[in-house]
Amino acid sequence: MWSKDKTKPDLQRFSGKTSLIAVGAELVGDMRFQGAVQVDGRVTGNLLATEGLVRVSAGGLVEGEIRAPHIVIDGEVSGDVFASGHLELGSRSRVRGNLHYGLMEMAMGAQIEGRLCHLKDGERPLELPATLEIEQ
């Protein structure tokens, strides 16, 4: 009845190109990659993907900017987030920074301290006409 696109980004799609920052591990510095990265530990720096997926799990922490086509957050991020495609915020996500997204899903319980900025390709936001004619 309802046709929804059920194809969500998944780490398994990037088999052989997946990196893991494990629980208890800390990465200091920027990480540039193609593929996927899962953050279960701590990243102090920016995560920059030209293609792929960034997943911050429930125990994960990123202090820096995240840029990727697909981003899934269920942990904590302190910095701006740029998801050119799909951004998913889980119920345990905590974000302190601005969110720039093409499409966004947000579960009840997610917390954001920042602005939501929808990315549109060449479109202008909906505006009211200069004069409104009201029919009675």
From TrEMBL:
InterPro entries: BacA/B (IPR007607). Belongs to the bactofilin family. This is Polymer-forming cytoskeletal family protein. It comes from Ectopseudomonas oleovorans. The lineage of its organism: Bacteria, Pseudomonadati, Pseudomonadota, Gammaproteobacteria, Pseudomonadales.
